[in-house]
Design goal:
The chain has helices at 14-17, 30-33, 38-45, 61-71, 86-101, 118-122, 125-130, 143-146, 149-153, 165-179, 186-196, 200-213, 222-228, 241-255, 259-271, 276-291, 297-312, 318-330, 336-351, 366-370, 411-430; strands at residues 51-54, 75-80, 106-111, 134-139, 156-159. It is of the alpha/beta class. It folds into four domains: 29-159, Rossmann fold (3-Layer(aba) Sandwich), CATH 3.40.50; 165-228, Helicase, Ruva Protein, domain 3 (Orthogonal Bundle); 238-330, Up-down Bundle (Zinc Finger, Delta Prime, domain 3), CATH 1.20.272; 356-430, post-AAA+ oligomerization domain-like (Orthogonal Bundle), CATH 1.10.3710. Strands 2-3-4-1-5 form a five-stranded parallel beta sheet, with helices on both faces. Strand 2 (75-80), helix 5 (86-101) and strand 3 (106-111) form a beta-alpha-beta unit. Helix 11 packs across helix 12 (200-213) and helix 14 (241-255) crosses helix 16. It is elongated and about 90 Å long.
Length: 433
């Protein structure tokens, strides 16, 4: 009688099916794998070595470890530092010894090696030293801090990078051919690439879901993509209309510099039983959003009013909230910081994760110094007027942005003049001499 166990096993995940089997199939990591680069040369010449693969998720660390094993026809043993212990390490050593008797090399790959404690990491040392096996550790954490120095000294650190947009687009083409799925619109492809944020596994898992949902369609558009990624529309609680309308009226009265109306709506809310702590939090928000650096004292007054209410409670503490509301209402207004912050968040969300430029990275360890971290950084305090004119603080490939535009009111009038002066000095420093 046919049963559940007679059904065919489900296919392997798309990411596993598309895992490269040769160097030529690898997408990304050209700084390591392109002809003439370090790891490519080592693989081509058969000069294999123990290594630490350091990089973000979904960039090919496991794939690269497998390719190293394939290059030498070595037995490949995988350990997960999340699940394995010293007993598993001993078993791996025994398997490697049997393989050596048979004339075969062994690669021991430890995923998330940073999760092994010092004793577990030390268990590899004598066998790496003796050449019993090649050790390859994969980590998303800085090995300078997470891998003990003895093991680190016996392994070469290779830094892997997130896949860029072109590489992720090439991976989509490969996945489309594998699944025979309908094509994506340009907008949907760009959105999927942005969603993946440099992570090939994340992209392929999302695309696998998309392909299933797209059966029978001519193309995959943004609407289908939104559904597959599980992004839900915000819900609005209609039962709270009166409450939210009142706080909106208070906020708009403060923004509109009308202290009398602001006091009216504050009194209405407190009289209606609204928690004064909620009002205090909203008043702090008003100070950040609508007064900003036009008068930085606004945030101090709002925060102080919240603290006073916590100490005194009602009704005495409510006077401090009223004082803060009046101060904010009559203060000069600026939403420049609010606008700048929203613009910065929007860019980061759609742009993905760019690497920090090497000259801006910290270098507390020898390894990080050897990798060039902090090299050529200009220390502003050593420059004229404490300003390194022309220095770049943006990721490579991203043009400098002007999120913050001070308004000509209050303190921001002076801030704007200072920024204009500094930007002029930057422009002069970048002119050819």
């Amino acid at each position: 009688m046919p049963g559940l166990f007679d059904e065919a096993a489900p296919p392997a995940p798309l990411a596993e099916r598309l895992r490269p089997k040769t160097l030529a199939e690898v997408i990304g990591q050209t700084h390591l794998l392109a002809p003439g680069n370090p790891l490519h040369a080592a693989l081509a010449a058969g000069r294999l070595h123990s290594m630490i693969l350091w990089g973000p998720p979904g960039v090919g660390k496991t794939t690269l470890a497998r390719l190293v094993a394939n290059a030498s026809d070595a037995m490949f043993i995988t350990l997960s530092a999340v699940l394995a212990g010293v007993k598993d390490i001993r078993e791996a050593v025994e398997r490697a010894e049997h393989a050596r008797v048979g004339g075969r090399r062994t690669v021991v790959f430890v995923d998330e090696v940073h999760r092994f404690n010092k004793a577990q990491q030390d268990a590899f040392l004598p066998h790496v030293e003796s050449g019993l096996f090649l050790f390859i550790g994969a980590t998303t954490e800085n090995p300078s801090f997470e891998v003990n120095s003895a093991l680190l000294s016996r392994a070469t650190v290779h830094v892997l990078k997130s896949l860029n947009a072109a590489e992720l687009a090439a991976l989509i083409q490969r996945a489309q051919a594998e699944l025979k799925a309908p094509p994506l619109t340009d907008a949907a492809r760009d959105r999927l690439v942005s969603f993946a944020d440099g992570d090939a596994r994340r992209l392929l898992n999302a695309y696998d879901n998309l392909a299933t949902l797209a059966e029978g369609r001519e193309q995959i558009d943004e609407a289908l993509l939104e559904g597959a990624l599980g992004e839900l529309l915000r819900r609005y609680d209609k039962d709270g209309d009166q409450f939210f309308d009142a706080i909106s009226a208070l906020h708009k009265s403060v923004r509109g510099s009308n202290p009398d109306a602001a006091l009216y709506w504050l009194a209405r809310m407190l009289d209606g039983g609204v928690d004064p702590r909620y009002v205090a939090r909203r008043v702090i928000r008003m100070a950040s959003e609508d007064i900003g650096l036009a008068d930085p004292r606004g945030l101090q007054v709002a925060a102080a009013a919240a603290a006073v209410y916590e100490r005194l409670g009602s009704p005495e503490g409510e006077l401090a909230l009223a004082e803060a509301v009046v101060f904010l209402a009559v203060a000069p207004k600026s939403n420049a910081v609010y606008t700048a912050w929203n613009a910065a968040r929007a860019l980061v969300k759609q742009d993905g994760t760019r690497p920090v430029p090497v000259h801006l990275r910290n270098a507390p360890t020898r390894l990080m110094k050897d990798l060039g971290h902090g090299r050529d950084y200009r220390y502003a305090h050593d420059e004229a007027d404490g300003y390194a004119a022309g220095e770049n603080y943006w990721p490579d490939g991203l043009a400098p942005q002007a999120f913050y535009q001070p308004v000509p009111r209050g303190l921001e009038l002076k801030i704007g003049e200072r920024l204009a002066e500094l930007r002029a000095r930057d422009a002069a420093a970048k002119k050819p001499r």
